[in-house]
Amino acid sequence: MVMTAQLQATVTKVGAGLAVLGAILGLIGNSLHPHLTDPSLEAFLTLVASRGDWLVLHLTIILSIFCILGGLFGVYRSISAEPAAGLAWLGFFVAIAGSTLVAVNFASDGMAMKHIATLWVAASAAEQTAMLPSAEVLFQIDFGFYTVWIFLFLGFPFVFFGLALLQSSVYPRWLGWLGFAGGLGCTVVGITQYVGGETTLLTTLFLLFSVIVTIWIFIAGILLWRKAAAMSPVG
Question: What's the pTM value of the predicted model, to 2 decimals?
Answer without folding.
Answer: 0.86
